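To assess whether ligand presence alters the predicted conformation, the chain was also submitted together with uridine 5'-triphosphate. Input:
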Amino acid sequence: MRVTFCVGGSILAPDDPDVSCIREIAQTLRALKSQKHEILVVIGGGGSSRKYIEVARKLKASSTLCDIIGIDVTRLNARLLIAALGNLAEQEPLTTFAAAIRAMLRGKVPVMGGMMPGQTTDAVAAMLASSSKSELLIFLTDVDGVYTADPKINSRAKKLERMTVDELMKLVTAKKVKPGINVIIDPVCARLIQRRGMRTLVLGKHEIKRLPEILKGAKHSGTTIVPG
Ligand code: UTP
């Protein structure tokens, strides 16, 4: 199966880069590759990007410059996964979809960070999934699925096992995209999932090890997003 993964910076580098999480992701991707899956990966910025953006804001950087700094950090995080994957990975973070797809077709795992200001890596992942004709888009995040509200703030928030992309749109469009935005899936990405009707899973990091069986159809504890 051809799968695009969006690895949240929130799990890969929640505050500082998490070496055991990076190792675990690399090990799982290696297992998936040995099962002949085709893999493309997009990496988020996490705590490091938020720290850099915060400082840039204090220095009166424009929103665009804040975003560019965020993108630089996502590419730095991408390099860490590339290091952990060794020869299996394309050795540079990819900056175009065409290059990422070419690397995947050569049997490598392409790792991308952010691309352009005004969005997050969620949107990059949706565009990569769409342009590579991936059968599945998987978000690995620090929340174990999509909730009716932010579970870190609202204790009555309920996890949704299954939702339509129209429901997802309603949930996320209330948020304005700005540098360092912190939502489960950014609105630009949700719109892309809606337009392209992509099969999408949102999974917590505890499901990383189970990815080989989940791709075979095993039940998972996250959220499945189905076309509206
Ligand atoms: P991300 O927002 O994608 O990482 O990029 P993240 O939010 O830390 O990962 P998760 O979802 O919480 O786990 C960090 C910042 O980089 C800029 C934005 O400012 C974003 O907030 N960015 C990223 C862009 O401007 N364009 C991109 O294509 C990607």
